[in-house]
Design a protein that fits this description.
The chain is of the alpha+beta class. It contains 3 helices and 13 strands; from the N terminus they run βαββαββββββββββα. The protein folds into 2 domains: 91 residues, Ribosomal Protein L25, Chain P; 84 residues, Ribosomal protein L25, C-terminal domain (RNA Polymerase Alpha Subunit, Chain A, domain 2). A hairpin with a 4-residue loop joins strand 4 and strand 5. The chain is elongated, with a radius of gyration of 26 Å.
C-alpha cells in the first residue's frame, strides 16, 4: 500500500500560456476518470519528480488540491521535453478505491542462480508483469527469487509469489527469467587456453626481436 501524497492547485491557465507555469517550476496536470470530469491542476515540478520516482505508474497517490478537494490517482502518463527532460504535462487517472485496477508492476530479481557458470547468462524477458488488484493492494514491485533458475528450468509467471488480493494477468507459461548459453564448454576452454598462453607468446616475440 502506498502513502504517497502530492499537493496541487486549481489551474486556470490552459493552451500555450502554460509555458508561464513551467517557467515558475510548475507542471500542468489533468485529472480524469470514469466518475471524474476532467479537472485542470498544477503541481510543483520537484514534487512531481519525487512522487513519480517512488510511485511509477502503478502506485496510488493522494492528490490534495488547495481548497479541500482530494483525488486518489494513478499517474497515467507524463510528457517531457525531448532535450531538457523537464515535465511538459502529466495525466492523472482518478480511481475508485473499491474497483480493481489493471496495471503493470516492475519485477526485480533477488539472489544469484546457483547453477550460473562460465558460458551461461541470465536473460530477463519481462521487466514488468500485469496485475489486477484494488488500488491500495497494488504492490510497488514484485521480488522474484532466481537462485533455483537453471538452463532447463526457466522462471515463469506461474512461479511468481502469491500476494493477497493480487491476480497476475499474463499467461502462466510466460517466461520471466531464463538461463541461456553464451559459449559452449569447448569455446570457453579454448578462450582460457589462449588467454593463459598469451604472456608466453609475448615473451617469445620479444626475445626474437632482441636477437
Amino acid at each position: 500500500m502506498s502513502d504517497l501524497k502530492l499537493d496541487a492547485q486549481p489551474r486556470t491557465i490552459i493552451g500555450r500560456q502554460v509555458r508561464q507555469l513551467r517557467r515558475q517550476g510548475l507542471v500542468p496536470v489533468t485529472v480524469y476518470g470514469k466518475k471524474q470530469a476532467a479537472e485542470n491542476l498544477q503541481v510543483v515540478e520537484r514534487s512531481l519528480e519525487r512522487v513519480l520516482q517512488a510511485a511509477g505508474f502503478s502506485q496510488l497517490v493522494q492528490v490534495d488540491v488547495e481548497g479541500g478537494k482530494t483525488h486518489n490517482i494513478l499517474i497515467r502518463e507524463v510528457q517531457r521535453h525531448p532535450v531538457t527532460h523537464s515535465f511538459l504535462h502529466a495525466d492523472f487517472y482518478a480511481v475508485d478505491l473499491t474497483v480493481k485496477q489493471r496495471v503493470q508492476v516492475p519485477v526485480h530479481a533477488v539472489g544469484k542462480p546457483e547453477s550460473l557458470v562460465q558460458g551461461l547468462m541470465v536473460l530477463q524477458s519481462l521487466d514488468h508483469v500485469t496485475v489486477e488488484a484494488l488500488p491500495r493492494a497494488i504492490p510497488g514491485h514484485i521480488d522474484v527469487d532466481v537462485t533455483k533458475l537453471a538452463l532447463e528450468h526457466p522462471i515463469t509467471v506461474a512461479h511468481l509469489p502469491v500476494i493477497e488480493g493480487v491476480e497476475y494477468m499474463d499467461e502462466p507459461e510466460e517466461a520471466l527469467f531464463a538461463m541461456i548459453v553464451t559459449r559452449t564448454e569447448a569455446e570457453a576452454a579454448a578462450e582460457e587456453a589462449a588467454a593463459s598462453a598469451e604472456p608466453e607468446l609475448v615473451r617469445i616475440r620479444r626475445e626474437e626481436e632482441e636477437k
